[in-house]
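Notebook entry, structure prediction.
Reason for the run: the old model in the group folder had no record of what sequence produced it. Starting over properly, with the input documented here first.
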Amino acid sequence: WSKVKVCGMPPAMDRVNEALVSAFAEVLREARLSAEITQEDLAGRAEVSVRFISFLETGKRQPSLSALAAISAGLGISMSALILRLER
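New structure, fully documented this time:
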């Protein structure tokens, strides 16, 4: 959190964090390739559209918590494992 706290209040959440979205896109693609599955396979396993997976991998969208849970399950890893990769 690089923003300064004002009057003890936490900083406003940055709803468009391009660096984070880009990093997630890269982590997701790497995790999918590591699992040796296609975007179509992952979409089927996660019960989302192939287009949504494509948008996530290109940084055009960011997942909700529900989507993150479904995608993680589709990859066969926990949400925390996926987030841990993102934090690195």
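Summary: The chain is about 60% helix and 0% strand.
The old model has been moved to the deprecated folder.
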